[in-house]
Amino acid sequence: MPTGLIVKALSGYYYVLPDDSGRVESVQCRARGIFKLKGISPLVGDRVEFELTENGEGTVDEIFPRTSELVRPPVANVELVVLVFSVDEPALNRQLLDKFLVHTESAGLETLICLTKHDLRQGAGQAVSEEEAEAGEHLELDQVIRLYERLGYPVLVTSAKEGIGVEAVRERLAGRISVFAGQSGVGKSSLLNAMIPGLGLETNAISMKLGRGKHTTRHVELICLPTGGFVADTPGFSSLDFLHVDAEGLSSCFREFAPYSEGCRFRGCLHLHEPGCKVQEAKESGAIDALRYEHYLQFLGEIREKKRRY
Ligand SMILES: Nc1nc2c(ncn2[C@@H]2O[C@H](COP(=O)(O)OP(=O)(O)OP(=O)(O)O)[C@@H](O)[C@H]2O)c(=O)[nH]1
Ligand SMILES: [Mg+2]
Ligand SMILES: [Zn+2]
Predict the structure, then answer these.
(1) Is 186 exposed, middle or buried (0-12, 13-18, 19+ CB in 10 A)?
(2) Which CATH class for the 3-65 domain?
(3) CATH code for the structural domain at 70-233
(4) 291 Cβ partners below 8 Å, 6+ apart?
(5) What is the pLDDT of residues 158-197, one digit of tens each?
(6) What is the number of the ligand closest to the CA of 269?
(7) Which ligand places an atom closest to the C-alpha of 271?
(8) Is 216 a pocket residue for ligand 1 (Cβ < 6 Å)?
(9) What is the pLDDT, as a whole number, of residue 124?
(10) pLDDT value at position 208?
(11) How far is 115 from 165, CA to CA, in rounded Å?
(12) Cα(233)–Cα(218) distance, integer angstroms
């Protein structure tokens, strides 16, 4: 039976790119009823076995074991997550960035931070409101980049408009399955268009009224890269639930806490108000970024609130 890769899922159909035969066209398939009975749904990124039916369509018969499974965006077997954030329009949202990082950490996935629309960066040095200054959001772009690089996350700065950094992103994606994730309007599709000549993904200006994107990309699709490998463009989203992270697990998703949390007086310290907490000390001394710590507290609150509700 032929095998292949699901590159798109739309309206109950799965589009399978066959492994052999050098075919570039995908086969439109239905999933066998048994999957529904077992409560399994095939995902984009799934490696499958399929059967051709008489009308040129096919049936997905078996899903091979997944190495990873993302809930949002729903993609299987991802090896690299590219977190796409624009330096402006919409403004860099560090809370959302830290939230995405909690998810990629808890899923154990390699992460690349991509800061787009570098051509708009002059806004970064402008006067800031008192609230922004208090929240630590006044950090210059360079300082933000250095902060995340120190945590061990590679950061690439790009401009699809000016063709900056496009080559570097292309190199990172070669030969594996990656996914682009980020808010609507940050320029995910534009960057992919700049990377792959002739791709022609739909892009759109952000809605000025709403101050956010209009969700130009509406489904998840794997795009075959000329350098080998696949990348998924995804619809933008700006809220994420903590589905698989509990209060104790959250702390380990903040990489920089690890060397300090070992020294906390209490085992299972949540680094809130506990005496002898080394993480709080490190935050006071500036060794841990104050805004990252603030986000940790906010996420902890969200997780506890969710637990209380169920
Ligand atoms: N100045 C500037 N604008 C850009 C750049 N990249 C994209 N844009 C603009 O940003 C807007 C949104 O771009 P898209 O590529 O559609 O954004 P997206 O992240 O795919 O959005 P969704 O599909 O809705 O999630 C468009 O108006 C683009 O022209 C850039 O490098 N510089
Ligand atoms: Mg898009
Ligand atoms: Zn502690």
Answers:
(1) buried
(2) mainly beta
(3) 3.40.50.300
(4) 94, 135, 136, 137, 139
(5) 999 999 999 999 999 999 999 999 998 999 999 999 999 8
(6) 3
(7) 3
(8) yes
(9) 46
(10) 45
(11) 10
(12) 10
| Segments of the chain scoring below 70 in pLDDT | 21-23, 122-139, 205-217, 237-243
- The residue to mutate among 96, 159, 190, having the most atoms of ligand 1 within 8 angstroms of its beta carbon, is 190
Cβ–ligand 1 distance for 86 under 6 Å, the answer no
Q: Tell me the fold of 247-309.
A: Ribonucleotide Reductase Protein R1; domain 1 (1.10.40)
Reading the block at residue 247, the tokens are 């209060």
Q: Which residues of 249-265 are buried (b: 16+ CB within 10 A; e: fewer)?
A: ebbebbebbeebbeebe
Torsion angles phi and psi, residue 221, rounded to 5: -145, 135
Residue extents of the structural domains in the chain: 3-65, 70-233, 247-309
Give yes or no for a cis peptide into 90 (omega within 30° of 0): yes
Q: Consult the annotation and say whether 186 binds a ligand.
A: yes
Structure-token pair, residue 282: 């490190």
Quick one: pLDDT at residue 39? 87
Cα of 70 from ligand 3 centre, angstroms: 30
Cα–ligand 1 centroid distance for 206 (angstroms): 8
Token representation of residue 96? 């959302």
**Cβ(120) – ligand 1 distance below 6 Å:** yes
Q: What is the number of the ligand 1 atom nearest to the C-alpha of 184?
A: 25
